[in-house]
């Protein structure tokens, strides 16, 4: 039995400057492993991954790239588009397709 | 360094022929803010140069370098006017090089550059995105060459590279530090990002800034980076269409939205905040004045939002002057970034100050151009921070 989990994602920037945002609420009563895919597991993988991201020492030369803000279980991470990969990316891309809040 | 050995101020340019070209180039490079194109480096290194070490003379060095770069820009303008008579001199500021474009296809994957699909001189592809990217890069090159006598983004014939079909339904275009990268759009809100010349030129505008004044991509300096890329995007589009300031749309990304969207473009430079008002996208959030400046942590501090303020100042300035925006107004903006008189962390007030100083250098104090520019900054609520005239 997992605790409930809330995931907020904002994708801002891009040449259009139009933000997209979404919220994924995973209720406590839904047993882990019975979802398709398992967003609980993916969220925890994403958190571990986001905690280990190292920002490059020099300012990146990329312009107009998306910037991602992820809040997983109250923990904030801001990640440039090119560093968001793997489970964190899969999760983030899923959440912004959901109608959470504008 | 005493007054006798200082380079002449730009305003007294008849004297500048007294400075040998190699010395002028060495002076222009002496503060480290500008690197001479490769073809100039040989002649500089074979001649006496100024000491590059940092020290108490660094302020003087900055002044020397700035004035030398101003003089070189004036030379460029003069040579442009008398190009046939001065061809032997042009190599100094027009190093050898030519238009060279390379378009690659990422084939729906988020990789760059992808597979080479069309290189310079090859006949059009069957793929419209490839051709629009290729043609767009050609327009940007032609604009820089015709108007500013600049050989590509770096002034040294940099190969212009573009990748199309990046990612799947990818809703963005960007400059990756070496090339432009274009997504296909999702087809529901966005068409292909190659469908707008102003967007293609906007991306290349980021490249031009990278090789001139690389404004930090955060907060107000980031919004200036965005705004100057928009100015560049709009000017290239106006230049190609032959639209003067009065008839131009001043839109960035016209044609990028699908018909399902209630909106005309991504941004309006002349009326920020009016480009779209749509049930899915919401209302265009760009501010038109400093009073509406958006404070946010998203988008590197709202760089794509607050760019509306300097965008409007430029459009108002160009419209007040009349004629073609790329001439007086565009040259002035270009000279500010090309001479690198602007710190990379400049805010709006500092940028406004530099544009006014440039207007005085180019057109004289109290000129109609300076008045129109002052009025434009005033309308958008930016108060230029004018330093005391210590040496002008």
Automatic annotation (TrEMBL), chain A:
<protein>
    <submittedName>
        <fullName>Uncharacterized protein</fullName>
    </submittedName>
</protein>
Automatic annotation (TrEMBL), chain B:
<comment type="similarity">
    <text>Belongs to the peptidase M4 family.</text>
</comment>
<keyword id="KW-0645">Protease</keyword>
<keyword id="KW-0479">Metal-binding</keyword>
<feature type="domain" description="Peptidase M4 C-terminal">
    <location>
        <begin position="214"/>
        <end position="382"/>
    </location>
</feature>
<keyword id="KW-0482">Metalloprotease</keyword>
<dbReference type="InterPro" id="IPR027268">
    <property type="entry name" value="Peptidase_M4/M1_CTD_sf"/>
</dbReference>
<keyword id="KW-0964">Secreted</keyword>
<keyword id="KW-0862">Zinc</keyword>
<protein>
    <recommendedName>
        <fullName>Neutral metalloproteinase</fullName>
        <ecNumber>3.4.24.-</ecNumber>
    </recommendedName>
</protein>
<dbReference type="InterPro" id="IPR023612">
    <property type="entry name" value="Peptidase_M4"/>
</dbReference>
<feature type="domain" description="Peptidase M4">
    <location>
        <begin position="133"/>
        <end position="209"/>
    </location>
</feature>
<dbReference type="InterPro" id="IPR001570">
    <property type="entry name" value="Peptidase_M4_C_domain"/>
</dbReference>
<dbReference type="InterPro" id="IPR052759">
    <property type="entry name" value="Metalloprotease_M4"/>
</dbReference>
<dbReference type="InterPro" id="IPR013856">
    <property type="entry name" value="Peptidase_M4_domain"/>
</dbReference>
<dbReference type="Pfam" id="PF02868">
    <property type="entry name" value="Peptidase_M4_C"/>
</dbReference>
<dbReference type="Pfam" id="PF01447">
    <property type="entry name" value="Peptidase_M4"/>
</dbReference>
<keyword id="KW-0378">Hydrolase</keyword>
<comment type="function">
    <text>Extracellular zinc metalloprotease.</text>
</comment>
């Amino acid at each position: 039995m997992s605790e409930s989990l809330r995931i907020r994602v904002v994708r801002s920037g891009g040449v259009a400057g139009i933000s997209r945002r979404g919220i994924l609420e995973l209720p406590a009563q839904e047993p882990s492993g019975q979802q398709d895919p398992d967003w609980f597991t993916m969220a925890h993988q994403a958190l571990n991954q986001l905690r280990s991201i190292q920002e490059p020492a020099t300012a990146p030369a990329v312009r107009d790239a998306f910037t991602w803000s992820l809040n997983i279980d109250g923990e904030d991470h801001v990640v440039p588009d090119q560093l968001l990969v793997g489970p964190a990316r899969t999760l983030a891309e899923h959440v912004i397709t959901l109608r959470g809040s504008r | 360094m005493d007054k006798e050995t200082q380079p002449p101020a730009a305003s007294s340019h008849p004297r500048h022929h007294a400075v040998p070209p190699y010395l002028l180039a060495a002076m222009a490079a002496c503060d480290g803010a500008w690197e001479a194109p490769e073809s100039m480096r040989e002649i500089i290194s074979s001649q006496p140069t100024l000491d590059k070490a940092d020290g108490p003379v660094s302020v003087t060095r900055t002044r020397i370098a700035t004035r030398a770069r101003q003089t070189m820009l004036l030379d460029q303008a003069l040579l442009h006017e008398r190009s046939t008579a001065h061809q032997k001199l042009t190599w100094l500021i027009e190093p050898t090089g030519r238009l060279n474009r390379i378009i690659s296809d990422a084939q729906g994957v988020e990789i760059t550059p992808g597979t080479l699909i069309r290189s310079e001189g090859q006949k059009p592809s069957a793929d419209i995105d490839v051709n629009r990217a290729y043609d767009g890069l050609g327009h940007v090159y032609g604009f820089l060459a015709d108007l500013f006598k600049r050989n590509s983004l770096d002034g040294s014939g940099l190969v212009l590279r573009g990748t199309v079909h990046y990612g799947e339904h990818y809703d963005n275009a960007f400059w990756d530090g070496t090339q432009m990268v274009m997504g296909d759009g999702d087809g529901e809100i966005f068409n292909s990002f190659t469908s707008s010349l102003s967007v293609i030129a906007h991306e290349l505008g980021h490249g031009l800034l990278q090789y001139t004044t690389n404004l930090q991509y955060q907060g107000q300096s980031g919004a200036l980076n965005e705004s100057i890329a928009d100015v560049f995007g709009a000017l290239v589009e106006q230049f190609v269409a032959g639209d003067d300031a009065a008839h131009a749309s001043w839109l960035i990304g016209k044609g990028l939205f699908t018909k399902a969207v209630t909106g005309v473009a991504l941004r309006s430079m002349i009326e920020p905040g009016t480009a779209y008002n749509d049930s899915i996208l919401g209302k265009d959030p760009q501010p038109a004045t400093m009073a509406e400046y958006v404070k946010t942590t998203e988008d590197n501090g709202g760089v794509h939002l607050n760019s509306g303020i300097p965008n409007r100042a430029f459009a108002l300035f160009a419209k007040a002057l009349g004629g073609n925006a790329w001439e007086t107004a565009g040259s002035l903006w270009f000279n500010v970034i090309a001479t690198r008189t602007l710190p990379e962390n400049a805010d709006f007030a500092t940028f406004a100050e530099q544009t006014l100083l440039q207007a005085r250098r180019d057109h004289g104090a109290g000129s109609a151009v300076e008045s129109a520019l002052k009025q434009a900054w005033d309308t958008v609520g930016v108060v230029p921070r004018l330093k005391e005239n210590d040496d002008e």
